Amino acid sequence: MVKKDAGVKIPVLDKDNYFHWKVKMHLHLMSMDERYVDCIEKGPHVPMKFASRVGLPYDAEDVEIPKPVSEWTVEDVAEVHKDKRTMNILFNGLEQEMFDNVINCTTAKETYELEMEQDEEIEKVQKKGGSIALGASVNQLEDDNEEAARAITSRASCRSDVSKGKGKMTEEEEEPANLDDLDEIDEHIAFLSRKFSKFKFKRNS
Q1: CB 40 within 8 A of CB 108
Q2: Could you give the CA distance from residue 141 to residue 192 in angstroms, rounded to a whole number?
Q3: Which of 48, 56, 143, 172 could join 64 in a cystine, given CB atoms 3.0 to 4.6 angstroms apart?
Q4: What are phi and psi of 133, to 5 degrees?
Q5: C-alpha dihedral over 172, 175, 180, 184, to 10 degrees?
Q6: pLDDT tens per residue, range 74-91
Q7: Distance (Å, rounded) from C-alpha 20 to C-alpha 13?
Q8: Got the DSSP string for 3-18?
C-alpha cells in the first residue's frame, strides 16, 4: 500500500511490516534530501550565530548561540522548514490508527522515535503470541504422540490375540479385536506420524 508525495511513493506502515517500512522510509527520505534523515536522527535544524565578543578577552573562544527568528536568512528558513516536510512524509506513511498516536508530535525526530517505540512493542507482542502458539502446538503433538504409542501397543496386542484365535476382550477393555479395526488404527498412527514430522521440519527450519 502506498501514498504519493510530489509524485514519489511513500511507504505506508502497518502493524505487520515494521522492519521493511523502517528500511524503505529511511531510503525514501535519503533519496529526497539527506537533511531529512538528519531531521529524524538529530532533530530540527537550529540556525546559529557567533555570540558577541564585546567584553570578552582577546583569546576567548568563539561561542555559538541560536539566532533570533528575526535574524533568520532565506537559507535558514528553508533548512528549518525541512523538518516540517519530513514530518509530513512520516505522517503520510501511517495508517489512521497509528497516526492518532503521533498527532501531537512537534518534530520529525519525536514522531519517528514514537513510531519506533510503538512498533517495537507491537513486535514483542506478536513474538510472544507466536511463542505461546508454538508451545500449545508442542503440547498437542506430545499428547498425539502418547496416543500413537498407546495405539501401537494396542495394535500389537490385538494382532497377537487375533492371530491366536482369541477374539475376545475383557469388559474393561475397549480396544478392537478384528483386522478391520486394526487397519483403522494403522491409518491413524500414520497420520500422527506425518503430522509430527511436518511440525519438526517447520520448527527446525
Answers
A1: yes
A2: 8
A3: 48
A4: -65, -40
A5: 150
A6: 999 999 999 999 999 999
A7: 9
A8: EEETTEEEEPB-TT-H
